[in-house]
Amino acid sequence: MRLLVHGMQSSGATLFTYFLAQRPGCLALVDILNNYAAPRFESALDAVAKCVVTTAYPIAVHAERFKADRTILLLRDPRDNYFSLQNKNYRNHSGLIDEKFALIDTLFAERSRFDATIHYEDFLDRDPAVLDRIRALGWPVEEAYYDFERTFEGMLALLWQETPQLLQDEFEISFGNCTPDGLLPDRRRKPRDPSIDAKLETLCPNLLAHYRARERSAVHAQV
After folding, report:
1. Average confidence score pLDDT of the chain
2. Which CATH class is domain 2-222?
3. Is the Cβ–Cβ distance between 78 and 207 less than 8 Å?
4. Contact 120/75 with Cβ under 8 angstroms?
5. Which of 2, 121, 128, 176 is the most exposed place for a label (fewest CB within 10 A)?
């Protein structure tokens, strides 16, 4: 089985994919860089990969090249996502930052195209429903994967064994800015900036409304 995760830059999609890649014996491309399409390669092993939202390569291109059996759309609150991405040096690579946020809104509106939609916040909260949703896709996953015992070095060694051509001259392997520290609560919610909210109301109104509705539901649940 091949599982493909699609998400924004600075959305936590790399960390989420690193979590999925804790499955023993699977091939893992936890961070396909924005200037690459997903690679074509042959292997009998199961594989998981993450590709980011860009204007250069649509999800259909990644899915076809990777031969994805299942796809996941990984979402993060666009207010936190924009705040995190706006100062990164790659924010305008393979599409301007505002173009990419407009595109994630389109993907959210068409999320039925994906086999599952996962909220980064639910993943961080260790919501059991997230694991159930992943297992329903046919990808085994365990609570113990949050310990992140499978290392980058181990994943890289298996890639060298199974797909040496990727590492030699066809592809650039990356593990991104991906550490289990991203699971810490203070790494999730960013300061609220009214100017970002105003911008996102134009760029991705559907996704922003969705997250505002989630906030209201969370508040009501606590009352």
Report:
1. 92
2. alpha beta
3. yes
4. yes
5. 128
**Minimal CA–CA distance to 79: which of 206, 217, 199, 183?**
199
Residue 12: the pLDDT is 93
pLDDT of 56 higher than 60: yes
Cβ atoms of residues 209 and 217 within 8 Å: no
pLDDT in tens, 161-178: 998 888 776 678 778 777
Pairing verdict, β 47-52 and 70-75: unpaired
Q: Say if CB 22 and CB 143 are below 8 A apart.
A: no
State whether the Cα torsion 53-135-21-169 is positive or negative: negative
Which SS3 state, helix, strand or coil, does residue 199 take?
A: helix
Q: Give the single-character DSSP code of 39.
A: P
Say whether pLDDT at 27 is over 70: yes
Q: Please state whether beta strands 27-32 and 116-119 pair in parallel, antiparallel, or not at all (unpaired).
A: unpaired
pLDDT digits (tens, 9 = 90+) for 96-136: 999 999 999 999 999 999 999 999 999 999 999 999 999 99
- Tokens, residue 184: 């810490």
| Domain ranges within the chain, ordered by starting residue | 2-222
Q: Provide CB contacts within 8 A for 186, sequence distance 6+.
A: none
